[in-house]
Design a protein that fits this description.
By secondary structure, this protein is of the alpha/beta class. The protein has three domains: 286 residues, Rossmann fold (3-Layer(aba) Sandwich), CATH 3.40.50.2000; 162 residues, Rossmann fold, CATH 3.40.50.2000; 42 residues. The protein is built from 23 helices and 13 strands. The chain is globular.
Amino acid sequence: MVLNIHLWYFLWILIASVDGGSVLVQPCFMMQTSRHEAIEKIALILSNAGHNVTYFAHTEYKVPVDFIAAKINVIKFKYPSEKISYNMPEDIVQDAMTMTITGEIEMLYERGGITDTYLDTLLLPYFEDVSLWKRLKDAAFDLVVLDSMDILFGGIAKQYLDRPTILWSNAGYEQHFENWLMPLPLSHIPVVAVPFSDQMSFMERTMNVYYYLTMIWYKRNWYDLRDENWKKVADKLGLPPTTNSRLSEGDLIFIQSNFAYFYPRPIMPNVIPVLGLKDKPHKPIDTKFTELIDVAGEDGFIVFTLGSMPAGMDEQRLEIFATVFAKLKQRVFWKYRGPIPKSLGKNTILLPWLPQNDLLGHPKLKLFMTHCGASGSAEAVFNGVPIIGVPLFYDQRHHCTILTQRLKMGVVVKFTEITVEMLSNAIDEVLGNPRYKRNALKAQELARDQPVNASYTIQYWAEYVMKHNGAKHLQSKPMMELNFFQYYLLDIACVCLIFMSFAILCVFYLIKRFYNFVFLSYDNDKLKKQ
């Protein structure tokens, strides 16, 4: 029996290696954050499933140990290392935290998004090695996996390589997908930049529409290359001199979400929710952490991180966090790089990096203080830990609202208004009230209760796209081609309004004629009698 099991296992490996497809995986070059970890995980999943995976990276990219073990082929291209941004630019983060939502949207699309500077200094060098691109095209990959955030590269690579494409959306239902992936009923689905729930008041629904229209206005810079810039790339690769670079040509998209987490909403068949991509057995924590945790005893420890935020936190807020942490019984692991706060307590350990997911799975963790980034929020849900949300900008407010209002697994503290008293009260509330832990465990149970895990979902749909040489049949072509007025039936509404106006005018005209007829007849009869 044991021999038969091993024989079948050997045959399965043999079949996988024979039938395995050829896959090109491309991360986003604009920032090296948790987005990269997710794309790397997808590459590993496909490689472990028996596919020949090629990972396209810049010269500064550090190849993970897992890639070497999985025999993933990493191709590197020349990239101006001094201009690579591994984190969100500091000026964008600092400015966004003090802006209105409208100003923040404008800045992210104009400065943080796709600009001429990004194209000229970073993207164009990417296409300098025409021979490399020719080899990639000649490789005739069965599948190309792209990060949805890198709109420019994604559109160009899709058009040049002309292969079936799958996108990865790290932040969930990102706003710039709405016109081709899924309907967006603004009456109960908030746009990603706002801290609204799905139960909005009249004023919130009004603001939701306003912010949606604002994003529609600014996203033209996110979607489209200017004609002259597109031609620079087109000339190098022999592409038509058009601006057809939208990622709507992708066959499928994986969304970091599921309906136990995000608000229920309509989606298209080519949108595949995947939550728990990085969920895996927790690794043993390094000795330096275990020793510190053991010292804390039953009081446990707290993890505090603002993700990839630069070391530019102002001194006042820095001291607020340090002062409050110093008064706690728990150990505090604070992911931070920058000047040491004057009020730093002995129980607080500053770390430039920490094994976040492994720490969140530790039984002595009492609280997770987070900026509510997409990946950190998903890890909080999958580990069932109570949170204090400290959102800084954009989609972080959206994720924070979901965690605190929909899942009720924590509270929110506004970073711009934070005080010692406010932060202390928030920590006391979450640590002292067991309902937050109960709600977190319930959210964990719902999120994990899926027919298949995230790895199998990724593998199945990737192989589905390769098997059928694309998945255009899952897309709604009209939804991608309809303009704003057609999509919302505004053209029909205008025609109806014209007909209604005409009908009302006709009614008024007939009433006036009838009135004149009756009263004129009456006046004539009266004159005759006189």
